[in-house]
Write a structure and sequence with these properties.
It is a single chain. This protein has 365 residues and is α/β, with parallel strands linked by helices. It folds into 2 domains: 6-216, Spore Coat Polysaccharide Biosynthesis Protein SpsA, Chain A (Alpha-Beta Complex), CATH 3.90.550.10; 245-356, no CATH class. The protein is built from 15 helices and 9 strands. It has a 5-stranded mixed beta sheet, with helices on both faces. Strands 5, 6, 7 and 9 form a 4-stranded mixed beta sheet that branches.
């Protein structure tokens, strides 16, 4: 039997309430030449039985059972078992539009080999069918700022490129594993072809479930900052390769990165209650002194991105800067702060930060 054109990889872990909906959306694809590899990552609910049931029902579905190793390990197992020319990833609680595969493959067929086909995600699919799809060329910074960059389930991947450059998910990362994979794939794609081209399908073809209890994107974890710091050097390498000296494109990228950094540092200071305030401030100083962060701040200075914010970030005034950043970044948040949270956010937390955080360079007991 010939190999399928597409391999859909679904890591599965304790999602019995959502799994059938996900697999039904995969089975309903209008493009039929695919295989779906379900990687049961040591589930303790009825998910393994549901996977086996689908494999018996539809020969295009295959099941791998393994000990719990995390989503990166599950995806790597699926990639090792895949036989398709292209790879598509799906989380076990999300759903695919019926035309996702057909639309992505049609866009890929019309593009030169270096192109990476992407699609949008959101809470709801378009109502009308069939979709009239015209992929829109995107720059790397445009894709990044449009929030369609750092996910693996919104793109059509070349298995040949993935295997040729030995690209796998870093199983030591529990956060930003998507960003790490995307960045290394794009660096490999650029190395192979000397150019990067993105085609974005301007419709929601992937429905992302954000309300499931235990969703890691919605809760605080101090490890998020550690993992983001690990991936930042490669992200900067990618964008320096693509943007070079184009200040008009560097500015928005640096602005988004600086805003994210300040938000993470603020979360650490505010929510990491297992550490004393002094140790939290020392941790913040350590992150600010890391080579990748200094490089980002230098770029922000070079392209004049929020000079007052950069000055504050360099000197550790994270609390005050956070609220300044939020107000500059989202007008609706500015109005909300003015009306409801002015005293607490503008004065109380900001004053505590300015008063308690010593000047940079001084050691704390």
């Amino acid at each position: 039997m010939s190999s399928p054109l597409v391999s859909i990889i679904v890591p599965v872990y304790n999602v019995e309430a959502y799994l059938s909906r996900c697999l039904e959306s995969i089975a309903a694809q209008t493009f039929r030449d695919f295989e779906c590899i379900l990687v049961d990552d040591g589930s303790t609910d009825s998910s393994p039985a549901l996977c086996d049931e689908w494999a018996q029902r539809d020969p295009r579905f295959r099941v791998l059972h393994q000990k719990n190793g995390g989503i990166s390990a599950a995806r790597n197992s699926g990639m090792d078992a895949a036989q398709g020319q292209y790879l598509v990833f799906s989380d076990d609680d999300d759903t695919l539009h019926p035309q996702l595969l057909s639309s992505a493959l049609a866009a890929q067929a019309e593009s030169p080999p270096p192109a990476l086909v992407c699609w949008k995600y959101g809470p709801e699919f378009p109502v009308s069918l069939p979709l009239q799809l015209r992929p829109v060329p995107q720059s790397v910074d445009g894709l990044f700022l449009g929030s369609d960059f750092a996910n693996v389930w919104g793109k059509l991947w070349s298995r040949e490129l993935v295997n040729g450059f030995s690209i796998r998910f870093d199983e030591s990362l529990r956060w930003c594993e998507d960003l790490d994979f995307v960045t290394r794939y794009l660096l490999a794609l650029y190395q192979q072809n000397g150019a990067l081209t993105f085609l974005l399908i301007p419709h929601v073809l992937y429905r992302y479930e954000q309300q499931r209890p235990g969703n890691v994107t919605s809760r605080y974890s101090p490890d998020k900052l550690i993992y983001e710091q690990k991936t930042l050097p490669e992200v900067l390498n990618l964008f320096e390769t693509q943007l070079q000296q184009d200040a008009g494109r560097w500015g928005p990228f640096c602005q988004a990165q600086l805003f994210a950094l300040i938000g993470r540092l603020t979360d650490l200071y505010r929510f990491e209650t297992s550490l004393s305030p002094a140790r939290r401030r020392r941790a913040i100083r350590g992150y600010l002194a890391s080579p990748a962060t200094r490089r980002l701040l230098a770029l922000c200075g070079q392209y004049r991105v929020w000079p007052s914010m950069r000055f504050c970030a360099e000197h550790g005034l994270v609390r005050a800067v956070f609220f300044l950043a939020r107000n500059c970044y989202k007008p609706w948040y500015k109005a909300l702060v003015r009306i409801q949270l002015w005293i607490k956010n503008k004065f109380y937390w900001g004053f505590r930060a300015l008063r308690r955080l010593p000047p940079q360079g001084k050691e704390e007991p």
